[in-house]
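Q: For a teaching session next week I want to show students how multiple molecules come together into a single three-dimensional assembly. I've collected the sequence lines for a complex. Could you give me the predicted C-alpha cells for the whole thing so I can convert them for display?
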Amino acid sequence: MVRVTTRINGDEVTFVCEPDETLLDVLRDRLNLTGAKEGCGTGDCGACSVTLDGRVVCSCLVLGAEAEGRQVGTVEGIARNGKLHPLQEKFLEFAALQCGVCTPGFLVAAKALLERNPDPTEAEIRFGLAGNLCRCTGYDKIVRAVQAAAAAMRKG
Amino acid sequence: MPLDAKFDPATHHFRLVGTRPLRPDGYDKVVGRARFGADASAPGMLVGRILRSPHPHARIRAIDTARAAKLPGVKAIVTRDDFKDGDPSLKDVLVNVMARDKALYDGHAVAAVAATSASVARKALKLIRVDYEILPHVTDVDEAMKPGAPILHGDMRTENIEPAPKKASNVASRCEFGHGDPEQGFKQADVVIERRFKTEATHQGYIEPHACLASVGSDGQGELWVCTQGHYMVRNTCAALVGMDVSKLRVTASEIGGGFGGKTTVFIEPVALALSRKAGKPVKLVMSREEVFRASGPTSSASMTVKIGVTRHGRITGAHADIRFQGGAFAGSPIELGAMSAFACYDLEHVKAVGWDVVTNRPKQAAYRAPGAPMVAFAVESVLDELAHKIGMDPVELRLKNTAKEGTRSSYGPKYNRIGLAACLEAARRHPHYEAPLGPNQGRGIAAGFWFNFGGQTCVSLNVNIDGTVALAVGTPDIGGSRASMCMMAAEELGIEYDKVRAIVADTSSLGYNDISEGSRVTFSTGLATIAAARDAIGKLCARAAKIWGIAPEAVVWENGRARPAGPNAGDFAPLSLAEIAKTAAKTGGPIAGHHEVNADGAGVSFAVHLCDAEVDPETGRVTIKRYTVVQDAGKAIHPSYVEGQFQGGAAQGIGWALNEEYVYGRDGRLQNPGFLDYRIPVASDLPMIDTVIVEVPNPGHPYGVRGVGETSIVPPLAAIDKAKAGKKRR
Amino acid sequence: MVRVKLSGPLKVAAGGEAELEVEAANIHQLLTRLAELHPKMKPMLERGAAVAIDGQIYRDDWFRAIPEGSEVVILPRMVGG
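A: Of course. Below is the structure for the complete assembly, covering every listed component.
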C-alpha cells in the first residue's frame, strides 16, 4: 500500500492505495467521488476525465500514487459554493445530455478547453472534445452548449 | 386512451407541451451526483468477476474450481452447476448467462467468483481450470447456412418450412411477409435491379458498461441495483433463473448510461445474485469494456438480396427481399422485424420479404435501435436510389410516387391509419439542404426509414402532496430525458407549473409492473398513463371540492389548475386551487392520488427521411460527412429538445455503422476489436451539426398525438451515406 | 365470422392458407379458435402474436372486440431497442 497526499478540488486529501491502483479507482472506490466514470478503462472514451495540475487526463490511465503532491480536479469541483459553472448551465439549457454518463468527462474537458482557448471555433471545440465519447447526442447539442458557455464566460 | 376526436393537437394551444424546460434529473448529472450502475456500494461488498471462454466453440468437459476456492479472500464461485434448468422459455437466456455443455462464442461466461478485492478476484479466475474440447466454429452468416457448416445445436431444425427438415441446421427458422406476386410485378417493370448486400454486426456502444450490485440474504430476500432499460424484466427473469419468489427480489433501476436496446435482457445480474446468495454478502459486478463487446448483445450481421422493378414513370411494380440475419449463438435475431419493415415505406401491389434466422458462434444479439430495420433499409433504399438514377427520376419524387399513406396496405399486413411519410418527404424536398450546391468530391444521398413503435404494460402513480406539489412515480427507466416529458404532461393536465411535478423511476416493489423502456414506447405509453393518472387525480380533486362546497361532484369542473363550480352552481363559490384542496386533504377524505394501469396499444408508426452530404478524399478515400439533415414525424413533440436529440443521436449511430463501426472476427473465431480504440464510434470531430425538422402528424392512438421517436432515426443513415459517398448526385 | 389474414410463420402453420374464416367476437376467441383449428399455431401464438384490427395493432388485448366486417391481420409480436 502507498500513502498519498494530494489536493482534490482544492482540498487536501490523504489516502492509501495499492501501487497498481488507478486514480479513477481511488477516486471512485476509496474517496466516494463517483462523478468520474469508467467507460472503457483504456483511455479511449474520456468518461473518467479529470485534470491533473490543470491538464486533462484519463484517470483510468493514471496511477493513484501519481497524484502525490499534485492538484486533481474532478466534476464534483466544477460548481463553486453551490453555483453552477456556465458550462453546467448551458449543458442543461441546451439539452446537451441524454443519459448523462459521459457528461462529467465532457464538462471537465470543456472547462479545460475554454481555460486554454476562451473563444474556440466549432472545429476547435470538436477536436478539443474528440477524446470524449458520447453515444446519445451526436454531439450537436454538446458543441452548441460549449459555444454558448464560452460566449457567456467571455461576457463575464 | 385515444386522441379525442374534437381535440386537434396541431391547433390546440398547449401551455407546456412543446416548450423546453430543464430536465429534473439534469442538475445531478452535471455536478456528478447522479448514481449510475457502478456508482453504488454496500458495506461488506465483494467484487465479482466472470471467467469467459477464449474459444468460439468448445465442449466444456470439466471445470475445476478447487484451487481458486482455496485462495484467501475468495468467498464464492459459481458455475453451470449453480443454475438449474427451469422455465423453458428462458432456457437460451440461462445458457447465455452461464455456459452449460458448450461454450458457444468467444466471451461466453463459464464461471464467476466473488472475492474481497478486484485483484483477488482476478487471481482466482486464473486458478480456475476449464477442460475444453475445441470444436470447429462459424461466425459468418452465409457460411453458417452452407451444408457442412459446423453445427451449434444438434437439436436445431429449421422451423416454418414444409416438409419439416430432419437434419440439424444453423438456420433456426424461416419467415415470409408480403402480398401479391413479385414475379408478376417484375414482368410489368421497365427496369428491374437485383443487388446483394452484407452488413456487419455493430454494437449499441452505450458508454456505461453493464453494472449491478446484488444482495441476497439467507432469508431468501434480495435486492438488486442495476443499470437496465427494464428493471421489472430483470426482476422477473432473475427470480426465475436463480429460483426466487418475484416478491422477494426488489430491483432498483440506477441512472442508465445509455442502452439503445442493449440493456433489455440480463447478462451479469443472475450471476451477481447467485454469487451473493452463496457468499451471504453483497456482490458488485461490473463488465469491462472488453466484456461488453465480447459478451453482451451486438446486432445481427446481415446478408441480403433485394430485387425491385419500376416502370419508367417511377411506379414500383414488384419488390422482393431475401434476408439472412445471424443473431449469435441462439435463435431470435430480429429477422421478422427486418422482413416486415423492409418495404414498409411503400405502397406496393406485389411485395414479398423472406427472412432466415441463423445461429453462429457469436454473442447472442440484443435489440439495437429499430432492431433489424437499418440493414434492410440500407439494401432496399440503395436499390431504389439506383432505380431512380436509371430512370432519370429525382429520388424523392420516386419515393413520393410510391409512398405509403393512410389506407395503404403495409408490406407486413395491416392497413395504415394516419401516417407522416409523405409529409416527411415533402419537408425534405422543401429543406434548403436539398437544393444546396455541392462542393468538389461531394455527393448527396437521401433515404427513408420506418419503425413500428409499440406501447406495452405501463403503470403510473401520481401523488398530490400537502403543499400542492405532485410526486409522479413511473416504472420505465429514463434513458434520454423522459422524466422531463412526464412532468410536462402531468403539469399540462393538472394545470400547475412544470417544476411543481417531480418524477421518479420507482423500484419494482413500489409500483406495479412496467415493460422495458424499449421500442420508442416511453413517451407514448408512460405519457399516456401519466395523462390518465393526472385525469384520475383531477376527478378526485373535483370530488373533494364538491364535498367542501356541498354540491354534486358532476357540477365541478377543472380549469387552469382549479376546481370551479359549474352548471347551476357556476359562480357560487370561489375556485379552489390544487394546493388549496391538497392542504385540507386529511380532513376531506385522506390522501389524493391518481393511478393508471394499462397495456397500451395504438402507438403510431414512425417514418423519417434523411439527407446527407459526404465528401470523399480522392487520395485516401476518407469519407467526411459535410452536412446532415433529419426529417421525422414525431406525432407531437412533448419536449422538442429531446426529440431533436433522438433524431441526432440515431443519425450519429447510423453514421458510425455506415463508416467505421463493425465487429471483426478473426479466422480463430475471436473478436479482434473489443475496445473503443478499434471499434471506433464517431467522435465530435467526425461529425457536422445535425439539422432536424420535426414533422407533426398526430398519432390517433395518443391523447396528445405522440408517436415514439427513438428508433426510426437509425434506419435511413446507412443508405443515405452510402449514396452520398458514391457521389450519385440528384438529377 | 372474422376473416383473418395470416403472414409469416403463421401462414406456414396454417398449411399455407393466407386467409382463414373463424367465429370470434374478440381477440381471445380468435386466438383460441385458431389454435384449435391449427394446433401448429398454438406455440407461435403463445410465444406472442399481435393482432391488427382495421390497421390498429394490439399486442396484448384479449377482450378487444372485433367488429363485424373489420380487417384482421395477425403478426409476430414486436420488440424494440
